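Box S1 | Example of a co-folding query
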Amino acid sequence: MTRFVLGRIGFYTLIAVLLAFFTVPLLWLVTAPFTSDPTYEVRVPDFTWDNFAALLEHPYALPSLWNSVVLSAGTAVLVVIFAALAAYALSRVRLPGRDALLYALLLLSSIITGTAAMVPLFQLAVELNLIDSQFGLILILTGGLLPAAIFMLKDFMDSTPKSYEESARVFGASPLQIVRDVVVPLVRPGLATIAVWAVANVWGNFLMPYLLLSDVEKQPAAVITYTLYTEGGQANLSMLSTFGLLYSIPVVLMYLFVSKKYGFRFHGGIKR
Amino acid sequence: MAAIELRGLTKVYPGGVRALDALDLVIPDGEFFALLGPSGCGKTTLLRTIAGLETATGGAVVIGDRDVTGVQPGARDVAMVFQDYALFPHMDVTDNIAYPLRIKKVSKNDRRDKAAEVGARLGLEHLMDRRPGQLSGGQQQRVALARVMATQAQAFLFDEPLSNLDARLRLEARTFLKKLQRELGVTTVFVTHDQAEALAMADRMAVMESGHIRQIGTPAEVFQRPANTFVAGFIGSTPMNLLDGVVRGDTLEVAGCKVAVPAAAEGRLSDGGKIVYGVRPEYMTYSAEPADGALGGKVSIVENLGASHLVTLDVNDVNVQAVVPEGSEPAVGDDGYALPRRDRALVYLDGELV
Ligand SMILES: Nc1ncnc2c1ncn2[C@@H]1O[C@H](COP(=O)(O)OP(=O)(O)O)[C@@H](O)[C@H]1O
Ligand SMILES: [Mg+2]
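Box S1 (continued) | Returned holo structure for adenosine-5'-diphosphate
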């Protein structure tokens, strides 16, 4: 009995320590912006808006958030459209070597947005005149996310019965009508999952925009964060914390919204 | 409305399963035609090949006077009810029924009117705003029928439309479906593995076995004169007695008893030949007294069928069954005699009807 109680106490202590480990940075994130002259400590804030006022005066901070929105929304839209079409085709058409193709794609995708492909990608972007262009960046990010998105969506499509589509086919619906009227509504939770996943990915991506966008006015929030220093070369904690808070709010809101509207259903590549 | 004709229709699936083997079949305009066969015999494949969801490996499908063998499903002018009904879960009943019209670019108002009209005809008025997930099995089945009716196709294809309903509802739906088809007069092919369903509903029926049609005829023909022992064993709620026998002059020796040669086989059997003697339990006259040409033995089992009893006799170690009207059933262990009706008994030679 005592052993049981002691075990429980140990268990909860461990959990509490773990929780604290993850909570403290979050606490810092919500208190520091409202504290004048914040440090690395978590302190009870004195509820000042000065930090926000200072951030407003920063020429690139707020526009960079908008850039982040443009980049992630653009990428999410392209990823969802292309992944839906490709996953549908791959799920419904029998191709020899289809699964090998999928796994090869998945493997290669980690290279596309990984460091190994940086130099060739950079050169490709220069050649195609897509350097320093948000559209070019969107295309490259889309390419990097597509294989995994196709892989996840194909699983969704595989698990929806074929008879819905066949029924529509007998009524005379064209393949595009079938996708629009039947398949997309059926896999909507899957599409929402992919969209959120794409947005979150692009929102937090630092390396690609840092390399491919040199114009500060086009850079997203992830890159601008990196420039928030004081004249002395120290991290500007009041700016960083305030910007960090603004930077994280949209993603949290998006999760809440989508989860409420569609509900997440994530099975990845796992067959049930 | 149109007739359906299949000529030498063959379907071999990738992997080599020969699901249909050179089928010939003509279904006249307006007929209610049942395809009956055990599970896996190729019924669904046949229906899907008519609809165009499977491409035929060989042969032709003709609907009306048009060869549609290479035509896309949507251009064949047929409508199909799938075994799982395939109602779109994200559309309400109205939109489900109206979907075929939406594909045909009928205006939104006309679509809604038509859906309401067809829905009302099938008693769905109060359900038009519901999603399929909020309907019972019977209601879903009627929505699927309504959707098919809204297409005004030349022919209807039903894949086991009643198999998802519980037993009681199935009987109601059977009557309902038959009445509806009669009123609409649309050529209808419907697939079932339930012989009672086929007998009850069809104008004509085909019995299939592993990709072949074993008999085509009206339910009465198929019931009374099964063309071979497969059909004989498959049709009937109590299985037919199929007894090995030998021709002895102008009588047959079956299970150690002498029985008369059935009327239809008279003069067509050679002495000493091995045959299978078939007679339905319903076509046996049972008595406790010996009779000439009867199969006699001890009663081993008596099963209650409701208004009658199924009596199993042990005739020289061969089981022979007879249906006995209520009130005159024997007790287990009694001696009993089952006299086959001569005009209903059948003789099979090498599995085929003589
Ligand atoms: N898509 C398919 N690929 C390969 N074989 C199939 C396919 N569909 C059905 N079959 C095979 O064809 C035969 C007939 O199947 P089916 O038409 O579904 O029979 P039924 O509807 O009479 O039960 C079965 O042996 C089945 O295993
Ligand atoms: Mg079937």
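Residues 2-48 of chain A form one domain. The interface with chain B takes residues 94, 161, 163-164, 166-174, 177, 181-182, 185-186, 188 of chain A (CB under 8 Å).
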